Amino acid sequence: MGERDIIRDIFAPLTADAPGAFNLTDDAAVLDGGPYVVTKDVLIAGVHFRPKDPLDLVARKALRVNLSDLAAMGAKPEGYVLGCVWPGNIKRAAIEDFARGLGEDQAAYRVSLYGGDTTAHKLKSGPLTISVTMFGAPPKQGVTRRSTAGAGDDLYVTGSIGDAGLGLKALGREEKFTTVDKASLSGRYHLPEPRLSMGQAIAGLATAAIDLSDGLMIDVGRLAAASGLRAEIDAVSIPRSAAAAAWIARQDKRWRALAALSTFGDDYEIAFTAPQSMRRSVMMAAKASRTEVARIGSLTRGEGAVLLTETGAEIPTPRDGFDHFA
Amino acid sequence: MGERDIIRDIFAPLTADAPGAFNLTDDAAVLDGGPYVVTKDVLIAGVHFRPKDPLDLVARKALRVNLSDLAAMGAKPEGYVLGCVWPGNIKRAAIEDFARGLGEDQAAYRVSLYGGDTTAHKLKSGPLTISVTMFGAPPKQGVTRRSTAGAGDDLYVTGSIGDAGLGLKALGREEKFTTVDKASLSGRYHLPEPRLSMGQAIAGLATAAIDLSDGLMIDVGRLAAASGLRAEIDAVSIPRSAAAAAWIARQDKRWRALAALSTFGDDYEIAFTAPQSMRRSVMMAAKASRTEVARIGSLTRGEGAVLLTETGAEIPTPRDGFDHFA
Fold first, then answer.
1. β-pair partners for B242
2. Would you place residue A321 in the very low, low, confident or very high pLDDT band (cuts 50, 70, 90)?
3. Which pLDDT score is estimated for B177?
4. Percent composition of chain A: helix, strand, coil (DSSP 3-state, to 5)
5. Which residues pair with B3 in a beta bridge?
6. What is the mean pLDDT of chain A?
7. Which residues in A lie closer than 8 A to residue B83 (C-beta atoms)?
8. What residue of B is the nearest CA neighbor of A114?
9. Can you give the pLDDT at residue A1?
10. A43-55 in b/e burial notation, b at 16+ Cβ within 10 A?
11. Could A121 and B127 be called an inter-chain contact, meaning their C-beta atoms sit closer than 8 Å?
12. With contact defined as beta carbons under 8 Å apart, do B68 and B213 qualify?
């Protein structure tokens, strides 16, 4: 198996819908049109995914975490370039599994591979490292930023919170779940659902947005900090899946469990803000894009992001989310 | 040291000339304008650079190998997004060294950072891995492809061949060199010189081009294969630096030494083809862009890439260049 064979046989077919990719035979690709919204996320075995995760799912997650960034900005994805560093002892069949996953999500999200670089570690056991640069078209209303929330705005979040973190615990057998709950939670860990149609539907309506990768509290904290405001989140209004609700019900300290959910990573939901006067429009956008949306709090003058009980008491959060350098 | 501090203090200043980077506070960046030429190269410690190489030089090389891809296509570079996976035990000062190198070459090549992802290995000794996606504006004549050489075209190469490979041997003390030669050769290994102005000057004039990353023979072989032709290279016409010429003169088998030079990687020169009728225009483009250019052979009907003596005998080449999966 040579580098050329891998590129020609396994990756070049993924560029079929991208004439500017030149079938991966050139030094660079051409992206016609523009302007573009561009994002880049790197995934490393043992850090961002489990080393034994099926490679088709890893490939799809690598695309989806980037799609989620575009979703937060309201962009419509078009294509990506891919850098892979494979373990030194990788087998061709494993690369084929990976490419099959790419192909499935290319079809699901209508994006195409445009180019990249395929390399290998010197070490047989070097961790698979995947770098995706994804680009898309900005919404005509302009991209939704993080720093533009207003004081008094409502705070919303899509989908449900904490499932992927519970899925990771389920996969690692740190916690026990029913078979059904384990399947649903681990599915959320392996395959986040980028909220593209919702992100596009709220462009021009949302005052600010962020995708949740490191945990609700830390990421909403980032949006609040960028906007020079404080975020207050009503803990009970945080949307939970049935599996997460069952998990909370089994815990001794339920407030603490709820707080923990809000610090788990890998949600890839979107948190966004909008003026109170826009509540009806937000709900219509949610309905039109068939996305669950919950109003979970508001932005006020001040700083930080806090989780509050129904009576307004602050709930301490166990940690602030994942930090590669902490 | 936290991820946020690193991004805000060390990387955000590198976006000063790119308003669309939003000071690295958002989920994605906006690239105004377009169309774009886009390329991606990944560099791994121990594979693409020496683990002890100074990090400012590693950063500059990471930009330059991508700039070289754009040069081959005739594009004018504009900016890049950066993914870094640092060893788990990285120190802030090391990241600062790296960013200083980025800043130097950003100024030299007038490109800006637009965004990216900063992560770390779980392992303290995980290899530094750098993924750069570089984008630029295509030349108004259209990009120079690999697959469009014509039978009978001349084959040219910029600069000199094999220096970086000798530089690597000098750094690894595999071969002895004078102090002056060692400095010049290792400089060529650490800091390739992307041939941007020449690449732009020959857009519309060259029939095909490729940047030399894996070795003259393998890369010219790729150009020939993509064009459905055979490349014949006159070994004596391959441009050599004074240091490389001195090295050849010290070898017992000089033809073999010359052949070896043509298989060393990391040249980051451009090989290109042009019709014989364009010889004068090619030399004028070289002069205008202050780039050394040598005519080293031609494209003919057939396949493969061969190295020939003055009498037309084929010189066997020791290997075909670097392959990550071979």
1. none
2. low
3. 95
4. 40, 25, 35
5. none
6. 95
7. 40-42, 83, 131, 133
8. B38
9. 74
10. bbbebbbbeebeb
11. yes
12. yes
pLDDT at A137: 97
Q: Check CB contact under 8 Å for B117 and A40.
A: yes
Selecting from A38, A47, A129 the residue whose C-beta is nearest the C-beta of B28 gives A38
Q: How many CB atoms are closer than 10 A to CB A122?
A: 12
Residue contact A34–B34, C-beta within 8 A: yes
Q: Could B39 and A115 be called an inter-chain contact, meaning their C-beta atoms sit closer than 8 Å?
A: yes
- CB-based contact B227:B153 (threshold 8 Å): no
Q: Can you say how many angstroms the Cα of residue B28 is from the centroid of all Cα atoms in its chain?
A: 28
Instruction: Let me know how long chain A is.
Output: 326
Residue A296 backbone phi and psi in degrees, to 5: -115, 0
Give every CB contact of residue B224 below 8 A, 6+ residues apart in sequence. B149, B230, B231, B299, B303, B304, B305
Name the residue in chain B with its Cα closest to that of A79: B38
Contact by Cβ (8 Å): A237, A297: yes
Tokens 């980032």 sit on residue: A222
Residues of A in contact with B39 (CB under 8 A): 27-29, 81, 115
- pLDDT surpassing 70 at residue B322: no
Q: Which of A218, A219, A321, A207 is nearest to A264 (CA)?
A: A321
Query: Cα separation of A310 and B88, whole Å?
Result: 41
Q: The pTM is what?
A: 0.94
Q: Closest Cα of chain A to B63: distance in Å?
A: 14
Give the containing element (helix H, strand E) for A323. Answer: none
The H or E element that residue B70 is part of is helix B55-73
Q: Are A34 and B38 within 8 A, CB to CB?
A: no
To the nearest whole angstrom, how far is the Cα of B116 from the nearest Cα of chain A?
5
Q: Which residues pair with A112 in a beta bridge?
A: A79
Burial class (CB in 10 A: 0-12, 13-18, 19+), A277: exposed
pLDDT over threshold 90, residue B142: yes
Chain A, chain B: beta-carbon pairs less than 8 Å apart:
230
B160 or B323, which is more confident?
B160
Record: contact A34-B39, CB cut-off 8 A: no
Rounded distance, CA A240 to CA A178, Å?
17
Distances (CA, A) of B100 to B24, B43, B56, B57, B105: 17, 18, 6, 9, 9
Contact between residue B263 and residue B140 where contact means Cβ atoms under 8 Å apart: no
pLDDT in tens, B43-99: 999 999 999 999 999 999 999 999 999 999 999 999 999 999 999 999 999 999 999
How many other C-beta atoms are found inside a 10 Å radius of the C-beta of residue B92?
Answer: 13
Q: Do B121 and A1 touch (CB under 8 A)?
A: no
SS3 A2: coil
C-beta atoms of A22 and B147 within 8 A: yes
Catalogue all structural domains in chain A, each as residue range(s) with its CATH number: 3-137 (3.30.1330.10), 154-308 (3.90.650.10)
At residue B202's C-alpha, the angle toward residues B196 and B208, to 5°, is: 100
Structural contact between residues A273 and A223, judged by C-beta atoms closer than 8 angstroms:
yes
> What percentage of chain A carries pLDDT values higher than 70?
98
* Closest-CA residue of chain B to A65: B27
Query: What CA–CA distance (Å, rounded) separates A247 from A241?
Result: 10
Taking contacts as CB-CB distances below 8 angstroms, the residues of chain B near A149 are none
Predicted pLDDT of residue A2: 82
